[in-house]
Amino acid sequence: xxxxxxxxxxxxxxxxxxTKAAEVTFRTQSALSQQVRALEEELGCRLIxxxxxxxxxxxxxxxxxxxxxxxxxxSYEGLREELQELQGSPAGELRxxxxxxxxxxxxxxxxxxxxxxxxQVRLSILxxxxxxxxxLVRQGDIDFGIALESAAPRDLAxxxxxxxxxxxxxxxxxxxxxxxxxxxxxIARYPLILPPRSQRSTGRRTLEALFREKGLDYRVVMESxxxxxxxLYVELGLGISFATLVKGLALTGPRSLAFIPLSHYAGPxxxxxxxxxxxxxxxxxxxxxxxxxxx
Length: 295
What we know:
The chain is of the alpha/beta class. The chain has helices spanning 3-15, 18-25, 29-43, 60-86, 100-106, 108-117, 130-139, 184-187, 202-214, 227-235, 283-294; strands at residues 48-51, 55-58, 92-98, 121-127, 144-148, 156-170, 192-194, 220-223, 240-246, 258-261, 269-276. Helix 1 (3-15) crosses helix 2 and helix 1 (3-15) packs across helix 4 (60-86).
């Protein structure tokens, strides 16, 4: 088994296509096909099945071998980083993804301080939805992702970070803002601004489950994946919305909003750092986490 075969198969499995894998590895499709066939002959089993002209899928053996290649490549990258640190000049890449609001409000200090401490480390920061963050961590495309602890799948490692609470957003003079506690029946009476269903928002799922449980009709007047945009149109009177916010954290700009706790419907939750369980954390990555948790 050769190193190039491991890398080639890994990219074919990861990209789901010989064509895309060839672009990533700077090889021809025929060369990749030959490498995969050589692996299958050596291992004595099929790793990839072709479906039609362009699609492919991994066999059960292929899935297991893909997990093996992922672990091998992760170990290799970790070793390279450790050897660089031994030379006294840590150099590598740190890849992070989080939703917009989290990046905007909670990462300014870290992303100002860290590059000064590690100028040779290449930072790659992605603004992604929670669902996309989880997928990126699972696939090994990023080192760390930020998501709600309650949304984290069991196959990922979770490091609890900041406590959050679910709140209802209304204009300050809204009828709901005058109530000591808001009920789901009262929420359903007003137009709603919600995240798209495609994002699998924990808050939206919680709210809609309550509506179904009570048999309530409701109207969504706007869908937005950006809490800042939603809060703007709440302020303008288009509808009411909700957000999962770090306790005590204000939204961007001079928004005139009421923040109504919904803790009686949504239990305590936390923002968490997600990473693969087989992730090798180099020294400069651990320093990033230390800086993050220190704040």
